Fold this sequence. Notes:
The protein has about 280 residues and is of the alpha+beta class. It folds into three domains: about 10-115, no CATH class; about 125-195, no CATH class; about 200-284, no CATH class. The protein has helices at about 20-35, 105-115, 120-155, 155-170, 175-195, 250-260, and strands spanning about 40-45, 45-50, 60-65, 75-80, 100, 200-210, 215-220, 240-245, 265-270, 270-275, 280-284. The chain has a six-stranded antiparallel β-sheet, with helices on both faces. α3 (about 120-155) runs antiparallel to α5. The model has no long low-confidence stretch (mean pLDDT about 85).
Amino acid sequence: MxxxxxxxxxIDDNLTGEQNDxxxxxxxxxxxxxxxxxxxxxxxxxxxxxxEGQPYCMGWVAFGDFRDSGKGIENYVVYSHxxxxxxxxxxxxxxxxxVMSLHLKDGVKNAKRYLKNFTMxxxxxxxxxxxxxxxxxxxxxxxxxxxxxxxxxxxxNAMYREMEHLSNTGYAxxxxxxxxxxxxxxxSQQEKKVSDAKNLHLHLIKVYExxxxxxxxxxxxxxxxxxxxxxxxxFPIESIKTYVDExxxxxxxxxxxxxxxLTQDQYVEDVGxxxxxxxxxxxT
Length: 284
Protein backbone atom coordinates (compact mmCIF):
# COMPACT_ATOMS: atom_id res chain seq x y z
CA MET A 1 0.00 0.00 0.00
CA UNK A 2 1.67 3.19 -1.17
CA UNK A 3 0.98 6.73 -0.05
CA UNK A 4 -2.60 7.77 -0.86
CA UNK A 5 -2.36 11.22 -2.40
CA UNK A 6 -5.52 13.32 -2.40
CA UNK A 7 -6.34 16.01 -4.96
CA UNK A 8 -7.85 19.11 -3.39
CA UNK A 9 -10.42 19.06 -6.19
CA UNK A 10 -11.47 15.55 -5.14
CA ILE A 11 -12.50 16.61 -1.64
CA ASP A 12 -16.24 16.20 -1.28
CA ASP A 13 -17.55 19.58 -0.15
CA ASN A 14 -20.83 17.94 0.85
CA LEU A 15 -19.11 15.55 3.25
CA THR A 16 -19.35 17.01 6.75
CA GLY A 17 -19.97 15.73 10.24
CA GLU A 18 -19.19 15.99 13.91
CA GLN A 19 -15.59 15.34 14.97
CA ASN A 20 -14.01 14.40 18.24
CA ASP A 21 -12.60 17.12 20.47
CA UNK A 22 -9.02 16.01 19.84
CA UNK A 23 -9.28 16.75 16.11
CA UNK A 24 -10.99 20.06 16.78
CA UNK A 25 -8.26 21.16 19.18
CA UNK A 26 -5.55 19.96 16.77
CA UNK A 27 -6.88 21.85 13.73
CA UNK A 28 -7.63 24.95 15.79
CA UNK A 29 -4.06 25.09 17.09
CA UNK A 30 -2.62 24.49 13.61
CA UNK A 31 -4.76 27.22 12.07
CA UNK A 32 -3.07 29.66 14.47
CA UNK A 33 0.47 28.48 13.74
CA UNK A 34 0.54 27.52 10.05
CA UNK A 35 -0.32 30.44 7.79
CA UNK A 36 -2.49 29.78 4.75
CA UNK A 37 -3.63 26.25 5.55
CA UNK A 38 -7.22 25.08 5.41
CA UNK A 39 -9.04 21.99 6.62
CA UNK A 40 -11.91 19.83 5.51
CA UNK A 41 -13.76 17.02 7.21
CA UNK A 42 -12.35 13.57 6.36
CA UNK A 43 -14.14 11.55 9.01
CA UNK A 44 -15.00 11.90 12.70
CA UNK A 45 -11.36 11.34 13.66
CA UNK A 46 -9.48 13.29 10.98
CA UNK A 47 -9.35 16.32 8.65
CA UNK A 48 -7.68 16.96 5.30
CA UNK A 49 -5.07 19.71 5.32
CA UNK A 50 -4.45 21.79 2.19
CA UNK A 51 -3.73 25.22 0.77
CA GLU A 52 -5.95 26.93 -1.78
CA GLY A 53 -4.39 26.94 -5.24
CA GLN A 54 -2.39 23.77 -4.63
CA PRO A 55 -3.32 20.60 -6.55
CA TYR A 56 -2.69 18.12 -3.72
CA CYS A 57 -3.52 18.01 -0.04
CA MET A 58 -0.57 18.29 2.29
CA GLY A 59 -1.97 15.25 4.07
CA TRP A 60 -4.34 14.86 7.00
CA VAL A 61 -4.30 15.19 10.78
CA ALA A 62 -6.18 13.09 13.24
CA PHE A 63 -6.78 12.18 16.85
CA GLY A 64 -7.37 8.56 17.70
CA ASP A 65 -5.82 5.11 17.88
CA PHE A 66 -4.08 4.60 14.54
CA ARG A 67 -1.56 1.97 15.59
CA ASP A 68 -1.88 -1.29 13.71
CA SER A 69 -1.97 -3.09 17.07
CA GLY A 70 -5.01 -1.06 18.11
CA LYS A 71 -4.17 -0.85 21.81
CA GLY A 72 -6.71 1.87 22.46
CA ILE A 73 -4.14 4.61 23.04
CA GLU A 74 -5.20 7.82 21.30
CA ASN A 75 -2.56 9.96 19.62
CA TYR A 76 -2.28 13.17 17.64
CA VAL A 77 -1.50 11.86 14.16
CA VAL A 78 -0.01 13.45 11.04
CA TYR A 79 -0.23 11.63 7.69
CA SER A 80 1.94 13.03 4.89
CA HIS A 81 3.92 12.10 1.79
CA UNK A 82 7.04 13.49 3.49
CA UNK A 83 6.94 10.92 6.31
CA UNK A 84 8.70 7.56 6.36
CA UNK A 85 7.99 5.84 9.67
CA UNK A 86 10.52 3.04 9.71
CA UNK A 87 8.69 1.21 12.50
CA UNK A 88 6.53 0.21 9.56
CA UNK A 89 9.39 -0.07 7.11
CA UNK A 90 7.71 -2.08 4.36
CA UNK A 91 5.78 0.91 3.04
CA UNK A 92 2.73 -1.30 2.65
CA UNK A 93 0.77 0.25 5.49
CA UNK A 94 -0.76 3.65 6.08
CA UNK A 95 1.28 3.89 9.27
CA UNK A 96 4.47 4.09 7.22
CA UNK A 97 3.39 7.64 6.35
CA UNK A 98 2.29 8.62 9.87
CA VAL A 99 3.87 10.10 12.95
CA MET A 100 2.02 9.90 16.26
CA SER A 101 2.37 11.74 19.54
CA LEU A 102 0.56 11.64 22.86
CA HIS A 103 0.64 15.38 23.43
CA LEU A 104 -0.91 18.17 21.39
CA LYS A 105 2.21 20.34 21.40
CA ASP A 106 4.19 17.48 19.87
CA GLY A 107 1.45 16.86 17.32
CA VAL A 108 1.62 20.51 16.29
CA LYS A 109 5.40 20.29 16.05
CA ASN A 110 5.11 17.23 13.79
CA ALA A 111 2.50 18.90 11.60
CA LYS A 112 4.69 21.97 11.11
CA ARG A 113 7.61 19.73 10.22
CA TYR A 114 5.92 17.29 7.83
CA LEU A 115 2.88 18.94 6.25
CA LYS A 116 4.25 20.28 2.98
CA ASN A 117 2.80 21.07 -0.42
CA PHE A 118 3.74 18.73 -3.27
CA THR A 119 6.92 19.76 -5.06
CA MET A 120 7.46 19.14 -8.77
CA UNK A 121 9.39 16.04 -7.73
CA UNK A 122 6.40 14.80 -5.72
CA UNK A 123 3.97 15.52 -8.56
CA UNK A 124 6.17 13.65 -11.04
CA UNK A 125 6.49 10.59 -8.82
CA UNK A 126 2.75 10.59 -8.19
CA UNK A 127 1.69 10.94 -11.84
CA UNK A 128 4.40 9.69 -14.17
CA UNK A 129 2.95 6.19 -14.23
CA UNK A 130 -0.30 7.58 -15.65
CA UNK A 131 1.27 9.08 -18.77
CA UNK A 132 3.64 6.13 -19.17
CA UNK A 133 0.66 3.76 -19.33
CA UNK A 134 -1.02 5.99 -21.93
CA UNK A 135 2.17 6.02 -24.01
CA UNK A 136 2.57 2.25 -23.84
CA UNK A 137 -1.10 1.70 -24.62
CA UNK A 138 -0.81 3.81 -27.80
CA UNK A 139 2.31 1.85 -28.80
CA UNK A 140 0.56 -1.47 -28.21
CA UNK A 141 -2.40 -0.36 -30.31
CA UNK A 142 -0.13 0.36 -33.27
CA UNK A 143 1.49 -3.07 -32.88
CA UNK A 144 -1.87 -4.79 -32.53
CA UNK A 145 -3.25 -3.16 -35.66
CA UNK A 146 -0.16 -4.08 -37.69
CA UNK A 147 -0.23 -7.70 -36.51
CA UNK A 148 -3.96 -7.98 -37.20
CA UNK A 149 -3.56 -6.87 -40.82
CA UNK A 150 -0.58 -9.17 -41.28
CA UNK A 151 -2.54 -12.14 -39.94
CA UNK A 152 -5.27 -11.59 -42.49
CA UNK A 153 -3.00 -11.19 -45.50
CA UNK A 154 0.22 -13.10 -45.13
CA UNK A 155 1.20 -16.60 -44.10
CA UNK A 156 4.94 -15.88 -43.79
CA ASN A 157 7.43 -13.03 -43.49
CA ALA A 158 8.87 -14.04 -46.86
CA MET A 159 5.49 -13.54 -48.48
CA TYR A 160 5.17 -10.14 -46.83
CA ARG A 161 8.59 -9.03 -48.06
CA GLU A 162 7.72 -10.00 -51.63
CA MET A 163 4.43 -8.12 -51.48
CA GLU A 164 6.12 -5.10 -49.90
CA HIS A 165 8.64 -5.07 -52.75
CA LEU A 166 5.90 -5.21 -55.37
CA SER A 167 3.98 -2.41 -53.64
CA ASN A 168 7.07 -0.20 -53.40
CA THR A 169 7.91 -0.69 -57.11
CA GLY A 170 4.48 0.54 -58.16
CA TYR A 171 3.25 -2.87 -59.32
CA ALA A 172 -0.42 -2.82 -60.40
CA UNK A 173 -2.13 -5.66 -58.57
CA UNK A 174 -4.74 -7.57 -60.54
CA UNK A 175 -7.09 -7.18 -57.56
CA UNK A 176 -7.00 -3.46 -56.65
CA UNK A 177 -8.65 -4.12 -53.27
CA UNK A 178 -5.91 -6.61 -52.38
CA UNK A 179 -3.29 -4.16 -53.58
CA UNK A 180 -4.71 -1.51 -51.25
CA UNK A 181 -4.62 -3.97 -48.36
CA UNK A 182 -0.95 -4.61 -49.07
CA UNK A 183 -0.25 -0.88 -49.11
CA UNK A 184 -2.16 -0.43 -45.85
CA UNK A 185 -0.09 -3.13 -44.24
CA UNK A 186 3.19 -1.69 -45.48
CA UNK A 187 2.12 1.63 -43.98
CA SER A 188 1.17 -0.04 -40.70
CA GLN A 189 4.61 -1.69 -40.52
CA GLN A 190 6.31 1.64 -41.08
CA GLU A 191 4.18 3.21 -38.32
CA LYS A 192 5.07 0.30 -36.05
CA LYS A 193 8.78 0.85 -36.61
CA VAL A 194 8.41 4.55 -35.83
CA SER A 195 6.37 3.78 -32.71
CA ASP A 196 8.83 1.16 -31.46
CA ALA A 197 11.72 3.61 -31.88
CA LYS A 198 10.04 6.34 -29.83
CA ASN A 199 11.13 7.35 -26.37
CA LEU A 200 8.92 9.30 -24.01
CA HIS A 201 10.60 12.65 -23.36
CA LEU A 202 8.41 15.01 -21.36
CA HIS A 203 8.16 18.34 -19.67
CA LEU A 204 6.03 18.40 -16.55
CA ILE A 205 4.32 21.79 -16.31
CA LYS A 206 2.42 23.21 -13.37
CA VAL A 207 0.38 26.33 -14.10
CA TYR A 208 -0.70 28.68 -11.31
CA GLU A 209 -1.47 32.29 -10.48
CA UNK A 210 0.94 34.40 -8.45
CA UNK A 211 0.58 38.11 -7.78
CA UNK A 212 -2.04 38.33 -10.49
CA UNK A 213 0.18 36.79 -13.16
CA UNK A 214 0.24 33.30 -14.62
CA UNK A 215 3.35 31.28 -13.80
CA UNK A 216 4.68 28.00 -15.17
CA UNK A 217 6.93 25.65 -13.20
CA UNK A 218 8.66 23.37 -15.71
CA UNK A 219 10.93 20.36 -15.39
CA UNK A 220 12.19 18.01 -18.11
CA UNK A 221 11.96 14.23 -17.70
CA UNK A 222 13.88 12.21 -20.29
CA UNK A 223 13.12 8.55 -21.09
CA UNK A 224 9.98 8.61 -18.98
CA UNK A 225 8.88 5.30 -20.53
CA UNK A 226 11.74 3.57 -18.68
CA UNK A 227 11.37 5.35 -15.33
CA UNK A 228 9.29 3.85 -12.55
CA UNK A 229 10.68 5.64 -9.50
CA UNK A 230 12.29 9.04 -9.71
CA UNK A 231 15.01 10.08 -7.30
CA UNK A 232 16.02 13.54 -6.12
CA UNK A 233 19.14 13.38 -8.29
CA UNK A 234 16.78 13.53 -11.27
CA PHE A 235 15.47 16.84 -9.96
CA PRO A 236 18.33 19.14 -8.98
CA ILE A 237 17.06 22.57 -8.05
CA GLU A 238 18.56 24.15 -11.17
CA SER A 239 16.53 21.77 -13.41
CA ILE A 240 13.22 23.32 -12.32
CA LYS A 241 12.50 26.48 -14.28
CA THR A 242 9.80 29.06 -13.64
CA TYR A 243 8.39 31.14 -16.48
CA VAL A 244 5.66 33.69 -17.11
CA ASP A 245 3.69 34.11 -20.35
CA GLU A 246 6.36 36.28 -21.95
CA UNK A 247 9.26 33.93 -21.17
CA UNK A 248 7.72 30.46 -21.68
CA UNK A 249 9.60 28.81 -24.61
CA UNK A 250 7.59 28.78 -27.84
CA UNK A 251 7.61 25.00 -28.32
CA UNK A 252 6.25 24.43 -24.83
CA UNK A 253 3.70 27.21 -25.19
CA UNK A 254 2.42 25.77 -28.48
CA UNK A 255 1.94 22.25 -27.17
CA UNK A 256 0.59 23.47 -23.87
CA UNK A 257 -2.11 25.39 -25.73
CA UNK A 258 -3.24 22.06 -27.23
CA UNK A 259 -2.97 20.01 -24.04
CA UNK A 260 -4.82 22.73 -22.16
CA UNK A 261 -8.03 22.02 -24.11
CA LEU A 262 -7.92 18.28 -23.38
CA THR A 263 -10.14 16.80 -20.71
CA GLN A 264 -8.51 15.42 -17.58
CA ASP A 265 -6.72 12.11 -18.17
CA GLN A 266 -6.75 12.61 -21.97
CA TYR A 267 -3.55 11.79 -23.87
CA VAL A 268 -2.52 12.82 -27.39
CA GLU A 269 0.57 11.10 -28.74
CA ASP A 270 3.49 13.42 -29.49
CA VAL A 271 1.60 16.28 -27.83
CA GLY A 272 0.99 15.49 -24.17
CA UNK A 273 -1.30 14.52 -21.35
CA UNK A 274 -3.70 16.55 -19.22
CA UNK A 275 -3.41 15.69 -15.54
CA UNK A 276 -6.01 18.25 -14.50
CA UNK A 277 -5.81 20.86 -11.74
CA UNK A 278 -3.33 22.96 -13.73
CA UNK A 279 -0.84 20.13 -14.30
CA UNK A 280 0.28 18.87 -17.71
CA UNK A 281 2.82 16.66 -19.41
CA UNK A 282 4.06 18.03 -22.73
CA UNK A 283 5.87 15.68 -25.10
CA THR A 284 9.16 16.98 -26.51
